[in-house]
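User: My advisor, Dr. K., asked me to get a structural model of this assembly before our group meeting. I'm new to this, so sorry if the format is off. These are the inputs:
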Amino acid sequence: MIEVKHLTKRYGNVTAVEDLSFTVEEGQIYGFLGPNGAGKSTTMNMMTGYIAMSAGTVTIQGHDIMEEPQAARRCMGYLPEQPPVYPDLTVREYLDFAAGLKKIPARARENAITEAMSQTDILDMAERLIRNLSKGYRQRVGLAQALLGAPEVLILDEPMVGLDPKQIVEIRELIQSLGKKHTIILSSHILSEIRAICDHIMIISHGRLVASDTPDRLLQTMTGAGSLDVTLKADEAKAGELLSSFGNDLSFSLTPSSEEGCVSARIQLSREEPDIREQLFYHCAQEKVPILEMTRNSQSLEEVFLELTEEDEPAGTQAGKGVPKGEEPARNVAVEEAEKEADQA
Amino acid sequence: MNSIIKKEIKGYLTSMTGCIYIAFLMVVCGIYFTAYHLQGGYPRFAYTLQSMLSIFLIATPILTMRSMAEERKLKTDQLLLTSPVSVAGIIVGKFLALMGVFVIAVALLCVYPIILSCFGEIAFGETYVAVLGFFLMGCSFLAIGLLISSLTESQVIAAVVTFLVLFVCYVMEGISGFFPETPLASLGSLAVCIALMALLLWRMTGNFFLTLFALMAGEAVLAGLYLLKPLSFEGLIQKILSCFNISGHFSEFANGTLDLAGVTYYLSVIFVCLFLAVQSVQKRRWN
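Assistant: The format is fine. Below is the predicted structure of the whole assembly, which you can bring to the meeting.
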């Protein structure tokens, strides 16, 4: 089991990872998801004790990584972003060296190496120099190194990078089968990959944990929050008034529609009220504003991911919240004028 | 640690660097040996060892440059530093591997006096004391090379800097001769040293007041000591510089005396360099 508490890493003024806390339960596969530069590798490097944290603690199977580094590292295998292989060793020599580093007793070494090689399907490559291996095979050699000595915890930084589609499927199956016996944390910036193998997804953005849940629940809690595109036959002021009076702090943005005398509104749906179509219909009918079009956009996990990892603001506040009059319309007038000019031309 | 030593020695001997290093020393030794002993008829092998010194400065960086620098370049230090081996264990393992390669060369050197004994009487005791001195000096060179290799990820920079440092140590006796032996000269040079250290402190911490305080305190202590005991400052700068004169400590051994001060000196140099190498690796993790 791994416990990460208030993990922070600062490089001068830049904060790479900020106040990250999570717990990893035994026998599950955890996925770190985040765009490039979100702090995934930095977090993993801190968890394995390669770099020191500016603040916070990491405990692996009860051993603090800074206070009992040897004991903590003994129960984990790590595959860094770039497989740490020596080009002038053969695969077997390299794994023998790694087994020595991991203090696997000499008697058990031969078996451990053969097992790790057969698990990653590199037995044919045993006597080849690593220099002559392709990126995919080097990746597998790195993975075999992490598997040596059957550690309880496996930390894999982007294990699928550089593999061909067939290998990806194989490694995916391997990780899934390993997940039955080991606790695995892997990172990726590719959602489908994580979704296919992980029991639990942690989304990191700008060094902060923005979501942590099972893929299904993540989707469930987030899909309510889709958006609604509505085209109303009214001018902008009227439409703004109408939607503002609809209540519940509705967040929306208005753009002039391509149809004459119409306006399009994109309404951000809140999680508490995932479906407001009916009420909106009656509300507009009461005000005698015809709805010409209404489309609901539900979110895919992909969009949830994008939204959560978007710059600066946390999810849901990017759209103008109850756009105050006079602020947004100014931009829209300019757009309208530009469109008119375009029509005339 | 054992697996590091094993892998490193194997690496040196299969990747040419180790072989080139040993061959280089043997060729140079062979040339001097032929010139001094076989043709010149000198009975003392220490002459050859002393003549080899300057060449030794060039040979050492060949061996030490890749030691830590390559690990960083290949990112294999991630494997080492995340394995259940302590940083000290890694550095000591690397050093023992370097030493292992050097031992092969020294073992070959030990054969020469035996060849020499075919031609007449040889003082074996004195000769092997000289070889021991040569071995200790070589080890301290290797420790310096390892330290410098741990500071950079470029092998070229590591090699050039190692050579420069060893060269400066080699000519230290001449350098210390530049300074007059008067107490005032020592005071002046030490004051400059403290100022330079304060500058370094400023660069590292960026704290102006701390730097100013350290500078003032350092200079005040220095001035106080000077006022109390001006005579102890006489030739002080020469004494300090002689600490860096690594090859100078070899001359006692070359004369055939088992110089315990020299043994202690070399062991301390090795210890300090390895300690600093561990610290430089540790420091990088904190940056």
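One thing worth pointing out at the meeting: The longest helix of chain A spans residues 328-344.

User: Perfect, thanks a lot.
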